[in-house]
Specification:
200 residues; 2% strand; mainly alpha
Length: 200
Amino acid sequence: MFLSHVWGLLTNPEMEWKAIRKEHCTITKCYCSHVLLLAAIPAIAGYIGTSQVGWQVTAREVHRLTPDSALQIAVLFYLTMLVAVFSIGKLIHWMGKTYGSKQGLPSCISLAAYTATPLFLIGAMLLYPLLWLNLLIGLPALAYSVYLLYTGVPIMMGVPKARGFLFASAVLAVGLVMLVGVLAATVILWGAGIGPVFTG
């Protein structure tokens, strides 16, 4: 069922992780029922926010992207999120042996996908791209995603809680490194002339 675990992850994550583990979801099913839909929220909201609403750096001037430029960035952002979920799942699978886990790749990708749920949902705030407001709302969502990671690793990966804490910390570190890598790639592309195009 589409998005069947979203409410449970927000209200009772420990019980929901157990339900997710029992499903033995395939990679395709995980993507089709969860990732493809939720990753579209920040991409679509970002497109609308940057091309229609715009943002202000000074009190007088509103900055907007051209629709073509906003669409290109939204599509690249969407694809980056899809690749990031798979990559982190693959890294969880690779690190699993170190922490005594014998779970297959589909479980690892499910862990990565469902952990990102709050970040996907909060992406709706990009409809109104105001930096201080986005940070104010986004930081609690990020904190809850970290909480989901620490709650989910022991259950999904079948490791004791003490070892799960270390495992989750390693996954978090890998996720932060990937984020820095994506930001660095963005800066390099913008420096090479492949960047946003503003209206007017």
